């Protein structure tokens, strides 16, 4: 028993130290952050619901128009509060500020810059936390607004800062997917590189398993490449191969009667 | 899809062209009468009991149905998912013209 507690005790001691080093939020801190965010968001939602109800019951066209405009402007009215909370280190408020960047009141052309600034903040303050993946999922959807190079740069900073194998594998997988179907050859090649790194460094991760199909498509199924062999049976059970049709133009049609 | 496929097979019956399917119906007994009803005469690999989750479509990373690849007479992939029947016809005719040259 004594020997056992000797082993366990140092583990207890090092866990909080590790969390501090990685600037991880404890469960209590995370609960507090969620509550802080929910308080403002709840207030916004309540006012939005109130206005929606008023719009329904009002019989003046002009009044309804005014209420609709007021409701539409709500996010803008609250933006500064979410923004301040985000600045104070609340990741939920930061995510809200990214998702509602339009409500910031900035010119449309200045929104990518604002988003980059906010994602920069996400990396600086939350890259080592699991919640970074929530930002990452949002980020990979911003191809049009931010462009692939910015997305890669931000994501890789998160990758470097995060100690969790699952988070790191997930980032490589997401970047590979983002680039796998790109039009430019150079981007697809970077996609391959991310998937190969995923395979190399996180071989037993479920993300590696999920990337296998995309990786095969990138390496073997691009136009100009010799089609991989298919060996199988037809609907009457007769075995045949795709290469039996070499010399002919083949339309290979994956179909089903549904 | 079937009407266009039937017309392709008929139009190109004397050309070095083959429409090869990878069929992803898990239940072949249900499919068989449909082959007659729809006059589906072209050959298909069967993707197995798992249907769309079968081995051939999984290996080829197929996520949308139908997915069409055009392969030239040298076995190279030349087109993926050509949009539009007219565009597909033109792509096939172009590949056939390469053989004759």
Main features:
heterodimer; A: 258 residues; mainly alpha; two-stranded antiparallel sheet; disordered N terminus; B: 101 residues; alpha+beta; Glutaredoxin; two-stranded parallel ribbon; 4 strands; 41% helix; 19% strand
Mean pLDDT of chain B equals: 94
Order of helices and strands of chain B: HEHEHEEH
Question: Mean pLDDT score of chain A, rounded?
Answer: 90
Main sheet specs of chain A: 2 strands, antiparallel
Total number of β-strand segments of chain A?
3
How would you characterize this protein structure?
In chain A, strand 1 (231-233) and strand 2 form a beta hairpin. Chain A has a two-stranded antiparallel ribbon with strand order 1-2. In chain A, 26% of the residues are buried. Chain A has helices at residues 2-21, 27-57, 61-72, 74-87, 91-99, 111-126, 132-140, 143-146, 148-161, 165-180, 185-201, 206-220, and strands at 231-233, 239-241, 249-255. Chain A has a domain at 26-129. Chain A is mainly α. Mean pLDDT of chain A is 90; it is low at 1-22. The longest helix of chain A has 31 residues, at 27-57. Chain B has 101 residues and is an alpha+beta fold. Chain B has a single domain, classed as Glutaredoxin (3-Layer(aba) Sandwich), CATH 3.40.30.10. Chain B contains four helices and four strands, in the order αβαβαββα. In chain B, the strands form two sheets. A two-stranded parallel ribbon of chain B has the order 1-2. In chain B, strands 3-4 form a two-stranded antiparallel sheet. In chain B, a hairpin with a 5-residue loop joins strand 3 and strand 4. The longest helix of chain B is centred in the last third of the chain and has 16 residues, at 85-100. Chain B starts with a helix and ends with a helix. The A-B interface holds A 213-214, 216-217, 221-228, 230, 232-235, 240, 242-243, 245-258 and B 1, 5, 8, 15-25, 28, 31-32, 34-35, 38, 43-47, 51-52, 56-62, 65-80, 88, 92, 95-96, 99.
